[in-house]
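Below is how a single chain appears once it has passed through the pipeline. First comes the sequence as given, then the structure the pipeline wrote out for it. We keep one example in the README because the format questions we get most often are answered faster by looking than by reading.
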Amino acid sequence: MEHLVYVPAPASRLREALADPARVARAVPGLQQDAGAAPGTGRLKVRIGSHSITYRGALRVSAHDDGSYAVDGDATEARGTGTVKLALTFRLADTDEGCAVSVTGTASADGRVAELPAEAVESAAARLLSRFVEGLGEAAVDRPEPAPIPETEVPPPTLAPEPEPEPLPEIFAEAAHARRTMIGRSAEEVDHAPPRGRYAPVPAPQTVAGASALRWAAPAAALALASAIVVTRALRRRR
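Resulting structure:
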């Protein structure tokens, strides 16, 4: 297998993308990564002509001392027993407009893909490689960093003096004083306590002294009347 792809990014940035397994996995078109698995592990649906085959497998990238990269992959049909194995080599070279990526290697497959026309299989493989390398180029392009949000100083709140409470009217002041003096007493005593101050009921005039005087005057009058009768009788006898 031989394939050549041009990407609008320098080779140095493309090498950074190949060294990051997460970016390599994102560059594979249509890869659905397994949760919790290593980057590059998951499911991939490949369309070949009018057919589509879903594979489950993993893709790995390793750097060589000569500056090239080995891309190895193996997968198994999600609904079948067919397998696919890849052993590719990526070589990068700077160009005037970016980087040229040449892909060489071998691929072996059996199962459903072996029953399809060879031309359709080669076309699907070339399309998949082109989209993969283009995805690496997009991952290598510099993304502008978001502009920092300017810090704005928030002025401290002005501490305005609290307004002095208005004096209560005299009526309410006396009622409040009466209520404070009842603190500590039971609710029943407070509810039934008679009002105090200017609103206390005026007591009725006491008639105890008058009643006592009448009580003593009656016997005295009776005694005086009896004495008069005795004197009158005595005078009559003398006559």
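The first strand starts at residue 2 and ends at 7.

See the next section for the split statistics.
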